[in-house]
Amino acid sequence: MNRQKILIVDDDPVIVKAMSMKLASAGYQTISAADASGALTAARKEKPDLILLDINFPIDVGVSWDGFKVIAWLQRIDEAKGTPVVVISGGDAAKFEKRAIEAGAIAYFQKPVDNDKLIALIKKTLSDSASQPA
Fold first, then answer.
1. What's the CATH number where 14 sits?
2. If DSSP codes are grouped into helix, strand and coil, which group holds residue 56?
3. What is the dihedral of CA 121, 124, 127, 131, to 10 degrees?
4. Are 7 and 42 in contact (CB under 8 A)?
5. What is the pLDDT of residues 55-70, one digit of tens each?
6. Residue 17 CB: number of other CB atoms within 10 A?
7. Are 75 and 104 spatial neighbours (Cβ–Cβ below 8 Å)?
8. Into how many domains does the chain fold?
9. Contact, 33 vs 13, CB < 8 A?
10. DSSP characters over 12-36
């Protein structure tokens, strides 16, 4: 069986592990990245069906990346164009939600995430995209 693949991008290993377990129990294959460069590499190499993306990351080799920059880059990478992105953040929802949607995310979830709502959104999104003609 070819399971749908979800890329989890978060610098908190506890969140990555918890989400991976929850998504695996729902039948999804998961891959993870802890930072922006890992996210872009994984998107190119693994070609995920959906990306769960945090907004805030620690500074990486003097470069300040955030989820908004990652979304912009993902939209330019052939292997990731059109891949649905769901933003998951512990940051200020009032500050980030509208900006995330405007940047191209399909949804915004505040941490701690309501896993049932997240999985329902993922199922709907991936079944809708599977029924779309290529």
1. 3.40.50.2300
2. strand
3. -130
4. yes
5. 987 766 566 788 999 9
6. 14
7. yes
8. 1
9. no
10. -HHHHHHHHHHHHHTT-EEEEESSH
